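Handout, section B. The chain below has 120 residues.
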Amino acid sequence: MRILANENFPRDAVDALRARGHDVVWVRTDCPGSPDREVVWRAEEEARVLVTFDKDFGELAFRAGLTTSAGIILFRVTALSPSTFTAKIVAVLESRTDWSGHFSVIEEARIRMTPLPHRK
């Protein structure tokens, strides 16, 4: 999977995803301090699923109409320990192949997927 991990995504999860063969670009090391709009643009240009803990991406997608066809995944889960947290992130990302075109919210006990609006 091609992934763009937002700046707030944990290093352990980035490392674990890379170790499992995923192509992960991490905002924190590749383009630190990038505005959210640029992060969405990069995800679109590079056909990467954007993974984040930042709720502002929902606002950008649905109110501002700034989306990526590769999908946006918002994690809304709490961490019990770094290893448990990382394992949960990896398991959720690998549990599906239909992230494209959706704004997905990952909660403790469910995944909510909403189709992203088409670009104008």
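Note. The chain has five helices and six strands. Compare this with the example in section A.
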